[in-house]
Design a protein that fits this description.
With 446 residues, the chain is of the alpha/beta class. The protein has helices spanning 233-240, 255-259, 275-280, 304-313, 327-331, 355-360, 365-376, 401-416, 427-431, 434-441; strands spanning 2-5, 8-13, 16-22, 25-37, 45-55, 58-69, 72-83, 87-96, 100-112, 119-123, 129-133, 144-147, 149-155, 158-165, 169-173, 181-186, 195-197, 202-213, 222-225, 247-249, 265-271, 289-296, 319-323, 342-346, 381-386, 421-426. 18% of the residues lie in helices and 42% in strands. The protein starts with a strand and ends in a 5-residue tail after the last helix.
Length: 446
């Protein structure tokens, strides 16, 4: 069963969580409950009373599990949930129903082998911070001991934070046994084992996982596309409560109307067959222009001659070429004049529209920005328009936790990458979505 919780995508299989990923990067390979007998044999369990609720805002799963083999009887209840903020929790609470000897019992977590060499920030049970690392060479002994929580980088400006409760946890290098992972498990091996358990012995443990973004001192200035929503006083007041830097206007005839929103304007100027006449017909804007982005009909990216004409008309405003559809248009047409900046748009649903692909595609932003800078030099990069769905398509998921998580992840990426500004979604979409509204009003979260 595929699950989505904020930027996390994962699988639920027979009581286990598998392949917990953010932006396509695997952070945790597996979380599962293990009962190991006195000979290190794994005692299987069967699941009953499985309840599942899953949607774009998160999921809840609960079930009863029962181990009954070789005289070992142990029953536990699993509770797994994930929310739109990207918090995952796995709780297990159980009780022995027979006397038996065990070597280990409880939740275990596998870290994927590609983390080898990554630094880990560890907090010990006494609150003391420490630094460790996933070993590159196979560690003969436990590389990390006495764990209460850990934090390690995933790449693309993201970190995972894991908190453990109900026992003292430690890590071993499972490559010693030809397993391609590292395992964090409860009950240190320094304690005597096996342990004789009596009926009524209880176990309660939990693992909580959070996704963190790299902090940036200056969040990217974010604007919205001006759609058909009227600039009525109530709408203007609501918009000004948000941290909106500008509005994008695609029709110069709407500049006077757009000025009533009292925000700087990003003018998307679409030139047709008679650009000179088009420029002559433009009236002085009634609001300050942040920039003019030039598009030319029949050209993937406007050539320098059209930029010269527009710059003559807007002498004191940055004028730059843009690719309105996809980055590929800009990447395949690199000969324009980028001296005052470069712009392109994007959306994550060109080739796939499932939840997992949408979130995984956040990882493409780094390569796009690096590539455009390779041929545009030090020119500022403007991302506009950035949509959640293809142009003209209304996707209800934008107004759920999935849409908010994708927006949060995109803004975090663009801030970290030093993008000059981003224009995403529309005024109506943000004003009509409580989740998006909270995201913009609160600024970029960590």
């Amino acid at each position: 069963m595929h699950l989505q919780a904020g930027e996390w995508s994962l699988e639920f299989r027979d009581g286990d969580l598998w392949h917990i990923r953010a932006a396509g990067v695997e952070a945790v390979e597996r979380i599962y409950f293990a009962l190991r007998d006195q000979n290190w044999g794994t005692v299987p369990f069967r699941i009953a009373d499985l309840k599942q609720e899953a949607g774009a805002d998160g999921f809840r799963i609960s079930f009863e599990a029962f181990h009954d083999s070789g005289g070992i009887r142990f029953r536990w209840r699993g509770s797994i949930e994930g929310d739109a903020a990207g918090v995952l929790r796995y709780r297990a609470a159980g009780e022995a129903e027979s006397a038996f000897r065990r070597n280990r019992i409880g939740l275990c977590l596998h870290h994927p082998m590609p983390l080898s060499g990554r630094e880990i920030l560890v907090t010990h049970p006494d609150g003391r911070p420490d630094r460790a690392a996933f070993p590159r060479l196979i560690s003969p002994h436990q590389p990390v001991l006495d764990i209460r929580s850990m934090r390690y980088p995933l790449g693309f400006g993201r970190e995972i934070e894991i908190e453990f409760s109900g026992d003292v946890w430690e890590m071993e290098d499972q490559r010693n046994w030809s397993d391609a992972n590292f395992k964090t498990y409860p009950t240190p091996l320094s304690l005597p084992f096996p342990v004789e358990l009596q009926p009524g012995y209880r176990v309660e443990q939990s693992v909580e996982i959070r996704l963190r973004h790299a902090r940036t001192e200056t969040p990217v200035p974010a604007g919205l596309v001006l759609d058909a929503i009227p600039p009525e006083p109530g709408n203007v007041q609501r918009l000004h409560k948000l941290k909106i830097a500008h509005l994008r206007v695609d029709d110069p005839a709407r500049l006077a109307e757009a000025a009533r929103w009292n925000l700087p304007l990003e003018l998307a100027l679409h030139l047709g067959d008679e650009p000179e006449q088009r420029m002559a017909s433009l009236h002085p804007p009634a609001a300050p222009l942040a920039r003019v982005i030039v598009y030319r009909q029949g050209e993937p990216v406007a050539s320098p001659r059209w930029l010269e004409i527009v710059r003559a008309r807007f002498a004191n405003t940055p004028v730059l070429p843009g690719a309105n559809g996809f980055f590929a248009e800009l990447n395949r047409n690199r000969s324009s004049d980028f001296s005052q900046g470069v712009a392109f748009g994007l959306h994550p649903q060109v080739h796939a529209s499932d939840d997992e692909s949408i979130m995984a595609n956040l990882a493409s932003h780094d390569a796009m920005i690096e590539t455009v800078r390779s041929f545009a030099g030090g020119a500022p990069v403007f991302l506009t328009p950035v949509r959640f769905a293809p142009p003209g398509v209304s996707d209800a998921r934008l107004f759920t936790g999935l849409g908010a998580a994708w927006t949060r992840g995109a803004l975090a990426n663009f801030s970290r990458l030093g993008v000059a500004s981003v224009t995403l979604h529309s005024v109506s979409e943000v004003l009509n979505s409580p989740m998006l509204g909270r995201l913009f009003s609160g600024g970029l979260p960590a």
